[in-house]
Amino acid sequence: MFVYIVRRLLQMIPVLLGVILVVFLIMQMVPGDPAVLLAGEGASAETIAKIRTQLGLDQPVMVQYFHYVTDVMTGDLGTSLRSNLPVFDEIMARLPATIELAIASIFVTVVLGMVAGIISATKQYSAADITIMIVALLGVSLPSFWLGLSLIYYFSVKLQWFPVAGWGTWKHMVLPAITLGTAGAAIVARMTRSSMLDVVRQDYIRTARAKGLREQVIVYKHALKNALIPIITVVGLQFGFLLGGTVLVESVFAINGLGRLIVDAIRMRDLPVVQGGVLIASVIFVFVNLLVDVLYRYFNKRIDLN
Amino acid sequence: MKVEFAPTNQALPSKAAAARPGRWRTFYRKLRKNKLAMVGGFIVLFYIVIALLAPVIAPHDPYAIDLVNKLKPPSADHWMGTDDKGRDVLSRLLYGTRLSMSVGFVAVFIGAFFGIILGLLSGYYGKWVDTVISRVIDVLLAFPGILLSLAIVSALGPNLFNVMVAVGVFSIPVFARIVRGSTLTVKKLEYIDAIRSLGANDFTIIFKHIFPNILSPIIVQATMRLATAILSAAGLSFLGLGAQPPLPEWGAMLSNGRDFLFTAPYLAMFPGLAISTLVLGFNIFGDGLRDALDPRMKQ
């Protein structure tokens, strides 16, 4: 396992370098001269030339990329054009809220999705099964920002159960987590159902039934454990959509997280913050994928990861 | 022992293609049996008709400002009410169908076009070509959700065309991966060896003989991807990075409606319902297509 993790970490290096390259190239597509953008309107040619030299913009693109990679490796993501603070510090200040939101949402995704999927699979073709599958179809089709606004309207404005916006207490977490976790829960429910249905047709489940084991033991101890493997993969994939989705949900609920930081930075043309934010979110996603693979190994000893 | 060979041209897929109408008939029969898929198909068709007929069926000019009648709730004259500038919400929604569907189709076309080329080259040539393209796909897939689109829009500037490009790029790795896998399977089939031995060049083999045989997963993915593209584009417009005022794009309408959530909740409700039903239509139609065209992909 240790060797596997080390190898996977080494394999991540080219992907991470590629991610840095893509982010770097995207920022090269920005129309106009970044030095002019930084210097502001009416700046003298001398000032612009000075900024260009300072930022290394007068050097070949490959050299600029090399400098950018070395800077990123040392945690230097540049300086925010808006606040003049290091981008890394700005991101770290906003990251906890996003991580909390992501964890709360993944909790909604896993619990809601698996419970619904298990009910659906154990009561196949029943009214409950059909209802759950229809709701699941709706769940993947609702735009998260619309679901969020609808939840705010009913639960915050009408019923006044939860705060309209902000972050800090568990009450602030409920609606954003449901908003962000619903689409994932719908996908996990469908996956759990089909995975459980595959497993319950296996011989060893028939044997367990023949032995006279209780249905609950069969479902939760024997069937679910083996149905978990494809579910873990789906949950892992969902984490990516979830991280991307925080951008919208944080905007809807006015949460000061990484997603909102990126959106605000785009509006204010604060490109170093956009660049750094997208980079950090991608790095987190790459590490989560590794974690998913390790969990995969843990739950399925038969997989030869080597 | 006498061995009879079929005439050479009968072994070629060009003749085999003659049997294709039968295959499509079987597919259509399967699809028709799937009631849910047909419902999805009708929803999509309904929106396509609306998009085409918007100028004819829209009761008002979607851009006409009428401040006297601003923020009016649904009534006989304005079935879905009016927005903060007195514009008819229903008319804007009908015209918005054109924008939202166009964004979805163009974005998926961009993603499919480049994804298919990359996937075909990667799967057919293998070796270093495959290694390079696969690493590029890995890198593009390392960006979570719509963040890649967001970064592209931030660089190119916020407008609807850039959203199409950004969402299209976001779809490239998905198509490339599926096409690569299918190409790997098809290129090992005997008929490809036969065509090669007849002197066909790589271009002909790839685009004339492999590509038509991997269309099923591409069609399924394109339909599913339309749902994602419409959602992503609406999301970007909701954030103010896509369609700019006064364009009646659904995401932008929803974003505008959010400012009046307490006083005029219908402004956010109708565009949200429109996005949800269209995306639902594509999702269930895509599910049905998958079951009918490529049952192995069924979850």
From TrEMBL, chain A:
Subcellular localization, as worded in the UniProt entry: Cell membrane
Residue span, ABC transmembrane type-1 domain: 95-296
Transmembrane intervals: 12-30, 101-120, 132-154, 174-192, 228-253, 273-296
Keyword hit for Ion transport: yes
Gene Ontology cellular-component terms listed: plasma membrane
Keywords from the named record: Cell membrane, Ion transport, Membrane, Nickel, Nickel transport, Transmembrane, Transmembrane helix, Transport
InterPro entries xrefs: BPD_transp_1_N (IPR045621), MetI-like (IPR000515), MetI-like_sf (IPR035906), Opp2B (IPR050045)
Pfam families on file: BPD_transp_1, BPD_transp_1_N
Assembly and binders: The complex is composed of two ATP-binding proteins (NikD and NikE), two transmembrane proteins (NikB and NikC) and a solute-binding protein (NikA).
Descriptive protein name: Nickel import system permease protein NikB
Organism (species): Brevibacillus parabrevis
Gene name of the record: oppB_4
